[in-house]
């Protein structure tokens, strides 16, 4: 410490002397120290050249030239004054001081370099953080741009979906409108064809009526001529046979004629007051008109058979064979209808005779037990034939009215003042005589009446495409209304009603729906419930009540399925 303090004092004094010398020698030549490359070393840590630490210079050997060619020409004429030679202690102290100053300067430089390195690192960190911040900002902007693109894409997709839905809806509406227009055109075309078909049918019917009229006129002329010439035994035999047949039919109708004649003065009041004949005024008038036509055709046919020598037995056998051999299949019905139409329209046999042969054979099927499938087939056969030959339907319904009064509908109550015996009453309501001359049993009559009513129900419910039913479901609905309005509930009427509804119930429900169901409720409440107890316990009434309560009319009868089949377009009727 002492040396260090002395060194500091010496240094201060020397500095003062040097300062004074500088002040006194202002304007004189400055001190110039030259160093060679050997006096420097390269410091790798500091990346620069530094003065070699252990070497010092002394001014003792300093040479000052007064030569005018000296490098410093600006100090000409100035006297150079040097420091006196220092002692050994002073030099040592000076060196220590210089070493310490150099060490301090090294520390300062090292600290400065550390600070510079720290600053550089901080700058690098700041630059790195700034770059990361910019990258994050760029990524954020990229995310926002991606989000914007996705949002715009979703908006575009939603708009495209909406436009597609609008376009699809517009196309559907256009298709619906086109289909509606097409359907309207198809309906118009179908109506036009139907009108044309009706016109053709009407034209054919008029032509047939005209031909029948001409035929009848010709037959009348032939009959008048034949009456004058008919004298042979063969003619007498035929006349006798026909007369016997006519008398048999008149005998079967005698009781009904007696009844009608006895009520001729008060028929209107009878069916209105309900004393004897139970029916409606409309039904009675329609029946009378049909029976008049039927009787007239029968009379004309008898006259034709009497006036000609032709044998129609073979023709009748052909008609009967086609009806008897018909099976309960659609193809069989179609084939038989075609064959029968061919027979009915034969020019060699008067059409009225063929019609009555066909009608008698159809109704004759009710005289024996017949299943429902066969009755459905007979009903369709009758509709197909009648659609081409309209008089067939009128004669068939008239024949049914004649053999079964409940197809009118009509019921005759028993009255001792009108009927002297029960046999007369039974004949009036339709009982037939057996071979031994006795009246048929009640069971036989109910079975035959049931078949007649089922055949009538099968006829009215028949619907065949491209063929018109001249006595269709509307007639069945009218029959049902007249039946319930006029006929009383008893053993005969209840069985007749059940037989009809069993066959036509499904078709009536399809056509009239809720109205038909209300009618069935009325039947169960106001018809079946008021029957006598002995009738309620019968099998037929049990079946009838079960039919209503289980609503069997909602399902198509299995036997009726052939009615839903479409007739082959290859079938062409004459």
TrEMBL record:
Gene3D superfamilies, alphabetized: GLE1-like (1.25.40.510)
Organism (species): Oldenlandia corymbosa var. corymbosa
Bilayer-spanning residue ranges: none
CC annotations in GO: cytoplasm; nuclear pore cytoplasmic filaments
Subcellular location: Nucleus, Nuclear pore complex
Predominant localisation class: nucleus
Keywords: Coiled coil, mRNA transport, Nuclear pore complex, Nucleus, Protein transport, Translocation, Transport
The organism's place on the tree of life at top rank: Eukaryota
InterPro entries: GLE1, GLE1-like_sf
Designated name of the protein: mRNA export factor GLE1
């Amino acid at each position: 410490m002492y040396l260090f303090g002395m060194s500091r004092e010496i240094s201060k004094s020397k500095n003062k002397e040097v300062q004074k010398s500088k002040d006194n020698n202002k304007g004189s030549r400055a001190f110039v120290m030259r160093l060679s490359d050997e006096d420097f070393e390269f410091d790798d840590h500091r990346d620069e050249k530094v003065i070699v630490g252990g070497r010092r210079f002394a001014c003792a050997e300093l040479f000052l030239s007064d030569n005018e060619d000296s490098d410093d020409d600006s100090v000409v004429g100035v006297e150079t004054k040097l420091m006196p030679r220092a002692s050994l202690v002073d030099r040592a102290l000076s060196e220590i001081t210089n070493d310490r100053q150099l060490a301090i300067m090294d520390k300062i430089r090292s600290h400065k370099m550390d600070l510079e390195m720290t600053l550089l690192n901080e700058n690098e960190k700041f630059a790195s953080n700034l770059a990361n911040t910019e990258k994050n900002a760029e990524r954020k902007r990229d995310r926002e741009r991606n989000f914007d693109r996705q949002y715009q894409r979703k908006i575009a997709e939603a708009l495209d979906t909406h436009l597609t839905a609008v376009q699809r809806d517009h196309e559907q509406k256009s298709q619906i409108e086109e289909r509606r227009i097409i359907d309207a055109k198809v309906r118009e075309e179908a109506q036009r064809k139907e009108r044309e078909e009706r016109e053709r049918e009407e034209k054919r019917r008029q032509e047939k009526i005209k031909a029948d009229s001409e035929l009848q006129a010709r037959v009348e002329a032939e009959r008048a001529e034949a009456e004058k010439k008919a004298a042979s035994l063969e003619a007498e035999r035929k006349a006798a046979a026909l007369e016997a047949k006519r008398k048999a039919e008149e005998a079967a109708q005698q009781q009904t004629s007696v009844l009608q004649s006895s009520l001729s003065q008060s028929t209107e009041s009878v069916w209105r007051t309900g004393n004897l004949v139970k029916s409606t005024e409309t039904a009675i008038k329609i029946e009378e008109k049909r029976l008049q036509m039927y009787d007239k055709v029968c009379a004309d046919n008898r006259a034709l058979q009497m006036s000609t020598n032709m044998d129609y037995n073979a023709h009748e056998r052909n008609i009967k064979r086609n009806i008897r051999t018909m099976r309960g299949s659609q193809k069989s019905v179609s084939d038989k209808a075609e064959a029968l139409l061919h027979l009915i329209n034969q020019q060699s046999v008067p059409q009225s005779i063929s019609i009555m042969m066909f009608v008698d054979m159809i109704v004759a099927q009710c005289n024996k037990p017949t299943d429902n499938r066969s009755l459905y087939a007979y009903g369709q056969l009758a509709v197909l034939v009648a659609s081409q030959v309209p008089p067939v339907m009128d004669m068939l319904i008239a024949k049914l009215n004649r053999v079964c009064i409940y197809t009118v509908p009509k019921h005759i109550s028993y009255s001792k003042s009108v009927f002297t015996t029960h046999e007369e009453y039974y004949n009036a309501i339709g009982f037939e005589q057996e071979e031994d001359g006795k009246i048929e049993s009640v069971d036989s009559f109910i079975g035959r009446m049931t078949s007649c009513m089922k055949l009538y129900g099968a006829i009215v419910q028949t619907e065949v495409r491209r063929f018109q039913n001249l006595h269709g479901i509307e007639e069945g609905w009218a029959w049902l209304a007249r039946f319930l309005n006029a006929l009383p509930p008893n053993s005969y009427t209840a069985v007749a009603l059940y037989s009809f509804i069993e066959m036509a119930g499904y078709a009536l429900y399809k056509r009239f729906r809720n109205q038909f169901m209300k009618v069935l409720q009325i039947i169960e409440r106001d018809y079946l419930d008021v029957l006598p107890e002995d009738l309620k316990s019968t099998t037929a009434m049990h079946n009838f009540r079960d039919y209503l309560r289980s609503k069997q009319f909602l399902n198509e009868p299995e036997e009726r399925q052939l009615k839903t089949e479409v007739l082959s377009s290859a079938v062409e009727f004459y």
